[in-house]
Amino acid sequence: MTPKDDFCTHDRPQHPTLPEDRPRGGPAQPAKGRKGWGVVAVVVVAVVLVVLGIALFP
Asked: What are the protein's UniProt keywords (predicted)?
């Protein structure tokens, strides 16, 4: 065994396999996008303020 292999396996258990926490091909989860309209409103207000600032103070 080379020194590199010895370093990498120093703290690993004998059988380092873990159960998969997110199985592939499982059912799709519903999207969580309920706060999207608040973000859109903030962006629209910011754009309107910039446009008004440019229009009123050329």
From this structure: Membrane, Transmembrane, Transmembrane helix
Residue 58 CA to residue 54 CA, distance in Å, equals 6
What residue spans of the chain are helical by DSSP H? Answer: 3-8, 36-56
Residue type, 54: I
pLDDT tens-digit series, residues 2-22:
556 666 666 666 766 766 666
CA atoms within 13 A on the CB side of 12: 10
Tell me how crowded residue 40 is: count the other CB atoms within 10 A of its CB: 10
Question: Sign (positive/negative) of CA torsion 25, 29, 31, 32?
Answer: negative
pTM of the predicted model, to two decimals? Answer: 0.43
